[in-house]
User: Which sequence fits this backbone?
């Protein structure tokens, strides 16, 4: 027997069974992972309760490994990243929102074709979403899109917009989705919502200069193949929601993009191409072949690694440096030019506890408000409070703060952390 096999054990199913030392290492790794999640949760909790809210910490949490961890946390943090007051949300659209709307027919067609964006029934052993539930959400999706467009006549619908809106609807609900999408459409997505695609093409034109800076050989190969950048169009204008099948990956990228510069989605496109550089260079130097290869985005991408690389490339080759190239000088981007001012507006937000008190004082807070502050069911609250008391007695003040935050965001999160 070889030395390397000496400590290997086999269980009754014939599978390799880890030794005690391996088990200890795995337990240590799991413990470190849990500690990392607890620390991140505590940082987010403290940032949300600072006055003003600590937006920089929230941005770092959204960008760093794992993103915002759960949808409960996203319902707290996404509004802060976009400067949306969850205690002053727009009302649900009335039925008249559809009357005589020029985009209604196109929106209806796109939403009807969006079935795959909703959790499928009996998918991967889980019950998924019932047909009736999906149909209700599709109707809400139509109303959200038309309501935002009706309130903002400067915005023009494009095919793929519904892929972005549905992501927010599934995470935060109808009323908060309206508020978040309206803000996002006037800032990060603004260039895609012009009457023509000229501004969108302008954003796509950043892709090749990024590749040229990092891998000149790959850049020249793609130029020779005349593949252009149209393969990345659906990536960019849907924030990858249309091309990624796993909703977890979509959410991870939305955390990243919401906390980043509007052009980060094109930097992410560049790192995907760079990640696949061997495949591209080994393919036939033909437009159709290269376009087909790049259009079919792999589903098993190393997302955290690519997010890190996109940030590094953004820092090393910022848009201002790339824009000096002749091809990028002719058009002004609304999203880029307004981004700095938009970021400044997010820095003086009050924590939700203060916003809630203000609404209560003014008598404006309704129990039917569709906000992230929805109460946990009473029976669940009592059980989780008991768990919190036990945790605080054994793990100390820091763990108590984490547990209290988990209670606020939902009992499922507490079970994940402890």
Assistant:
């Amino acid at each position: 027997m070889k030395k390397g096999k000496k400590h290997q054990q086999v269980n009754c199913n014939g599978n390799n069974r880890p030794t005690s030392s391996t088990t200890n290492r795995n337990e240590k790794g799991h413990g470190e992972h849990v500690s990392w999640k607890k620390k991140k949760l505590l940082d987010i909790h403290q940032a949300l309760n600072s006055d003003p809210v600590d937006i920089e910490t929230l941005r770092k949490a959204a960008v760093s490994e794992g993103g915002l961890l759960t949808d409960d946390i996203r319902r707290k943090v996404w509004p802060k990243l976009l400067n949306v007051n969850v205690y002053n949300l727009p009302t649900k659209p009335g039925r008249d929102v559809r009357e005589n709307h020029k985009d209604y027919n196109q929106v209806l067609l796109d939403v009807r074709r969006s079935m795959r964006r909703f959790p499928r029934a009996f998918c991967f052993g889980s019950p998924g979403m019932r047909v009736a539930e999906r149909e209700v959400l599709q109707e809400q999706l139509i109303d959200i899109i038309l309501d935002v467009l009706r309130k903002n006549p400067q915005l023009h619908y494009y095919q793929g917009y519904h892929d972005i809106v549905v992501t927010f609807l599934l995470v935060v609900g109808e009323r908060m989705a309206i508020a978040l999408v309206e803000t996002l459409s006037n800032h990060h997505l603004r260039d895609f919502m012009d009457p023509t695609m000229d501004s969108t093409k302008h954003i796509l034109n950043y892709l090749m200069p990024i590749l040229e800076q990092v891998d000149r050989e790959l850049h020249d190969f793609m130029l020779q193949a005349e593949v252009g950048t149209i393969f990345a169009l659906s990536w960019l204008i849907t924030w990858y929601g249309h091309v990624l099948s796993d909703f977890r990956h979509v959410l991870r990228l939305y955390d990243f993009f919401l906390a980043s510069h509007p052009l980060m989605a094109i930097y992410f496109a560049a790192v995907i191409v760079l990640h696949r550089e061997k495949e591209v260079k080994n393919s036939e130097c033909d437009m159709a072949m290269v376009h087909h290869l790049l259009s079919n985005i792999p589903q098993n991408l190393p997302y955290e690694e690519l997010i890190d690389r996109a940030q590094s490339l953004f820092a090393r080759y910022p848009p201002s440096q790339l824009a000096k190239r002749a091809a990028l000088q002719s058009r002004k981007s609304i999203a880029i030019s307004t981004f700095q001012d938009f970021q400044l507006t997010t820095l003086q937000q009050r924590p939700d506890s203060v916003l809630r008190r203000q609404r209560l004082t003014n008598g404006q807070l309704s129990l039917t408000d569709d906000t992230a502050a929805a109460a946990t069911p009473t029976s669940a609250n009592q059980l989780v409070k008991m768990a919190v008391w036990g945790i605080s007695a054994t793990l100390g003040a820091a763990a108590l703060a984490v547990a209290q935050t988990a209670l606020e965001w939902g009992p499922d999160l507490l079970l994940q952390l402890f």
